[in-house]
């Protein structure tokens, strides 16, 4: 039986914590428009992601993808490091 690979959701963000073993916290930003006033607002979401090799550092820009639940809060996996921090 051949397993079909589904398109997984991806998010881009910045690593804000790497203190846990094999785990990073990624902050993703989206810009939304206020319904009444029309002002653009920044909204942030934090994702807990799996970093199996502990290669990410704080400030790295990364791409994460959705995966099966790995623990209580970990539902994302590191896909690639887009840009390393200075």
Task: Provide the gyration radius in Å.
Answer: 15 Å
What is the CA-CA span between the terminal residues?
A: 46 Å
The number of E-state strands comes to 5
What would you call the shape?
Answer: globular
Q: Main sheet: which strands, in order across?
A: 1-2-3-5-4
Low-confidence runs: none
* Overall average residue pLDDT: 94
State the helical fraction. Answer: under 10%
* CATH fold description: OB fold (Dihydrolipoamide Acetyltransferase, E2P)
Helix and strand sequence: EEEEE
Instruction: Give the helix/strand class.
Output: mainly beta
- Number of structural units classed as domains: 1
Name given to the CATH homologous superfamily: Nucleic acid-binding proteins
CATH class: Mainly Beta
Q: Any guess at the CATH architecture? A: Beta Barrel
Report the total helices. 0
Major sheet attributes: 5 strands, mixed, barrel
Layout of secondary structure:
Elements: E1 10-17, E2 23-33, E3 40-50, E4 61-66, E5 76-83
Parallel strand pairs: 3-5
Antiparallel strand pairs: 1-2, 1-4, 2-3, 4-5
């Amino acid at each position: 039986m051949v397993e079909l690979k589904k398109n997984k959701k991806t998010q881009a963000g910045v690593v804000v914590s790497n203190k846990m073993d094999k785990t990073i916290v990624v902050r993703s930003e989206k810009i939304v428009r206020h319904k009444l006033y029309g002002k653009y607002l920044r909204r942030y979401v934090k994702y807990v992601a799996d970093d199996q090799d502990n290669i990410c550092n704080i400030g790295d820009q990364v791409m994460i993808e959705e995966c099966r639940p790995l623990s209580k809060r970990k539902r994302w996996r590191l896909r690639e490091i887009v840009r390393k921090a200075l």
